[in-house]
C-alpha cells in the first residue's frame, strides 16, 4: 500500500472516529481521534485487512472507549448476557432515557440486536454493525440522519459498516 493510500485511510478513520464519538463531547471525541491517528502513525502502510483491525484496536484497546463514554458494542456471538449491559452503557453515554430492557435468557445475540434495532427506530436512532467478519458482533448507535455518512466514512477508513437490516440479511444466508 502506498503512503498516499495509507494517508487516505488514516484521514477516513479520523473522520469516522470524530463522527461516531461526537455525542461524547469535543474533548473526548478529539482524544479518541488523536488515539486513532497515533495508532495509524505507529503502524505505517500495510494492507487493507490490517487497516480495519487498526481501527478496531484503537477503538477498543485500553486507551480507546472508556467506561461511562461507551460508543461501540463488542460481544462474542454466544454471549447474549453481554448485550444489555453494553447497550445500557452506550445509551447512557447518549443521555437516552428510558433505558432499553432485554432479558437474554434463551435468546441469541442476534435476537437482542434485532430487538434493540426496533426499539431505537422511533427515537430516531439506528443500529449499525461494524463487520469484521469474525465470530463477534460490533455495533454502533447513530442518529438515523447520519447513517449514510457513517457508512461512507467507514468505507473511506477501510472499515465495513452496515445498517442492521443489511447485516441481518447476510446472517440469514449462513
UniProtKB/TrEMBL annotation:
A Pfam entry, by short name: DUF6630
Domain of life per record: Bacteria
InterPro entries: DUF6630
Residue ranges constituting the DUF6630 domain according to the UniProt record: 27-161
Protein name according to UniProt: DUF6630 domain-containing protein
Annotated organism of origin: Duganella vulcania
Amino acid at each position: 500500500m502506498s503512503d498516499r493510500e495509507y494517508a487516505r485511510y488514516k484521514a477516513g478513520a479520523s473522520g469516522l472516529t470524530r463522527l461516531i464519538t461526537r455525542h461524547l463531547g469535543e474533548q473526548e471525541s478529539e482524544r479518541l481521534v488523536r488515539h486513532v491517528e497515533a495508532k495509524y502513525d505507529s503502524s505505517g502502510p500495510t494492507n487493507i485487512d490490517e487497516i480495519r483491525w487498526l481501527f478496531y484496536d484503537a477503538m477498543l484497546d485500553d486507551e480507546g472507549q472508556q467506561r461511562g463514554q461507551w460508543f461501540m458494542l463488542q460481544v462474542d456471538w454466544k454471549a447474549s448476557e453481554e448485550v444489555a449491559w453494553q447497550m445500557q452503557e452506550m445509551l447512557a453515554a447518549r443521555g437516552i432515557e428510558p433505558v432499553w430492557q432485554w432479558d437474554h435468557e434463551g435468546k441469541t445475540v442476534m435476537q437482542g440486536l434485532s430487538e434493540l434495532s426496533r426499539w431505537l427506530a422511533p427515537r430516531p436512532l439506528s443500529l449499525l454493525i461494524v463487520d469484521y467478519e469474525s465470530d463477534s458482533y460490533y455495533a454502533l448507535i447513530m442518529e438515523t440522519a447520519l447513517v449514510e455518512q457513517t457508512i461512507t466514512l467507514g468505507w473511506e477508513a477501510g472499515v465495513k459498516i452496515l445498517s442492521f437490516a443489511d447485516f441481518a440479511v447476510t446472517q440469514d444466508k449462513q
